[in-house]
Amino acid sequence: MDTLSNKSKLVVASVLATALAGGPLLAQSYQGEQSEKRDHEKTKLHIVGHDAIIGAPVINEHEGTSGKKLGTISDLVLDARKGRVLYAVLDSDSTTGADRRRTPIHWKSLEYNAKKSMFTLAMTSNAVKRLPEFDSKTLQRLGRDVSATDATKQRKGDVGRDAAKWTRPSLVLVSKIAGCAVLADKDKLGSGDTLFLEPKSGCAAFLTVQTAPPPQGKTDYVVPWAALRFVEAKGKQPMQLQLGRPKGALKAAPKLGDEHADVNKAEFRKKVYEFYGVERPAYEQTESKKGKEHERLRRLPKKRH
């Protein structure tokens, strides 16, 4: 005698059929959620210290999933007035060091992988070898190129009246930022330490300023790059960065030692912007819009099939 009645068998069969029919839909729903999550990760804002970028490997993305290592980033070329990285200095790999080359790579040609802390470049090693070598005169040459481009924009009316100040080259190596003097009004506040960048746009986001260690220990101020003014080196006077407020007004300034101090947290970045009275940069406003759109789509009711 069957343990289940005919009616019970029909109910079980119906449940199984529903589960089997819904399986693909559940899988599609799960895949859709995972895809949404991956898309959100791609657009998520990542602020990275220059010390994490310098030394990062550069992989040729045309060499398959494993890729071929083209070299490592040894420095960055920053337009200090505009606060944007224009080039990365690529050191080609060499086991002996005899054929080591340094090559300027346009920043827009590189794609940063935050999870793997590496860059991909759509160029073969042979193509990289054909690029000009980076030497002591490269910054001057690149500076002239930038000046010529800005001058052309000014003639076409693409930039404002004060564009003449951009026609003077202000390219510096990021490695030189670390250790340069930062002045608060006329007093020395400390020395530049870590430059934080938004890799996708190449924008300089923040600079940590390290004070001389008093008896209670050093202080690391977190300053938006937009709050700093670049003072180029003249004669024996080295490059400096000027912060337009007195040293005494910085007692409550955001510091790395503060609780929840993290440049990748929106709340902390907002606190820094508000203290120094600077607007949120364009890349962060774009990120905020993407985040709101992602949240809106996430809250929409799932379609029933």
CATH level 1 class label of the domain at 178-290: Mainly Beta
Strand count, sense and barrel status of the largest sheet are:
7 strands, mixed
Mean pLDDT: 78
Low-confidence stretches: 35-42, 159-167
Number of helices, where a helix is a run of at least 4 consecutive DSSP H or I residues? 7
The coarse silhouette is globular
Which class do the helix and strand fractions yield? alpha+beta
What is the rounded distance between the termini?
39 Å
Number of strands: 14
The value of Rg in angstroms is 26 Å
Write out the CATH superfamily name of the domain at 178-290.
PRC-barrel domain
In terms of DSSP E residues, the strand content is: 25-35%
Helix content: 25-40%
Q: Using the 3D structure, state the CATH architecture of the domain at 178-290.
A: Roll
N-to-C SSE series?
A: HEHEEEEEEHHEHEEEEEEHH
List keywords for this structure.
305 residues; SH3 type barrels; seven-stranded mixed β-sheet; 32% helix
